Amino acid sequence: MWSRLEPYRSSIILLLALIAGGVLGIYAPTFAAKLQPIGQIFLNLLFMIIVPLVGISVMSSIARMTDLKRLGRIMAIIFIVSIAMALIPAAGIVALALWYNPAQGVTIDLSKSVEAGSGKMDFVSMITTHDFVGLFSKSNILALIVMAIIAGIAIGQSENAGQRIASLLEDANTVIMKIVSIIMTVAPVGLGCYFAATMASQDSGILLTFARAIILFMAATVVYYILGSILYSWIGGGMPAVKAFWRNAIPPSVTALGTCSSLGTLPVTIRAGKAMGINPEIVDVSLPLLVNLNKGGVAMIAALKIVFIYSVLGMEFTTETFFLTMLIAVLSAIIVGGVPGGAFLGEIFIVTTLGLPMETIPMLVVLGTITDAPATLINVIHDLNAAQIIERFTGKKQPSTEATQTAAAL
């Protein structure tokens, strides 16, 4: 039994720490308030590493990706499909959350910590800074990502010089990930203390809002898993593609739930893709890329987190905020979700981009931790659907007889 829980070990420990912190904050608020400096130290450590983590990871990933530029058409379709599969679930969960409202009138008082003008659509200041030094601030994460993408493309196109820099970036990325892993060893203590201090001054009714938001996400995941898969498979090849998908969907689905890792499920996903009759060339090229780029589950939970936090803070969710939420969801799915080892990067990305108080980070972590398994399920299963769509629009569909032989061989 314990071996089956091993993939969830870190998530269970973190969740238990957050629950303990919440209980302590509610029933021993005076003591819990004194724990705030411990949590602040942990968050400051994350904020200090966030700029090199994002810059180096994104540059390294893009530099490696440009080795496939000869497959330009496939790459273009992969990006288009990934963006669409991020926008659809993100917009859907926003609509559901605004209709249902997980907060149900419960609010917390953190308004004094919210930066003025947060959530406004100032694209100039969001994606650029007036000088290079501005890229070293956690408040300019979007601008840093834009510059990292440009730099990554330049490195990938610089032949021998670029290869040397790409190799150096890969080594630097390994070191950064090790730093992150060291910091994350104290995550349960740091976030537990910070959450305790946050809950010390809040209404215990806030806990019910988490339950409502999580139930909403679980229900939406089931519906989207079924209906989304049918729709995407049909786009990829009509009813035969739908039938082929459902004949082979269970193994990768179960593996995704069991491992909570899109990358860990990749061997099973590749096997399922070939058994579905997808052209092996498409499977071998697209699925390793989709596992990092196509993360609809990440986009879905990122959008829900934003609506949830706006709701519990009593902030108005405007049309401008909606479009900014869609942008954050897409970037979370395609870039942030693909950064290996970037624990809590999504939460920090949301908070810094929207100018939200740091006290909201543990709340976002609660939602992210509990919904990790179903979000991974959506990420994995729709990679197969994306491969079907890519096969159709690249004109590389495998002849039915060859597909049958491939499936039989597997």
From TrEMBL:
GO MF annotation list: symporter activity
Alphabetical GO CC annotations of the entry are:
plasma membrane
Q: What is this protein called?
A: Sodium:dicarboxylate symporter
Q: Which domain of life is it from?
A: Bacteria
Q: Which InterPro entries does the UniProt record give? A: Na-dicarboxylate_symporter, Na:dicarbo_symporter_sf
Which membrane topology describes this protein?
Answer: Multi-pass membrane protein
Q: Which UniProt keywords apply?
A: Cell membrane, Membrane, Transmembrane, Transmembrane helix, Transport
Q: Where, subcellularly, is it found?
A: Cell membrane
Transmembrane parts of this sequence: 12-29, 41-62, 74-100, 132-155, 175-197, 209-235, 296-315, 321-354
Which GO terms are recorded in the biological process aspect for this UniProt protein?
dicarboxylic acid transport
Q: Which one Pfam family would you cite for this protein? A: SDF
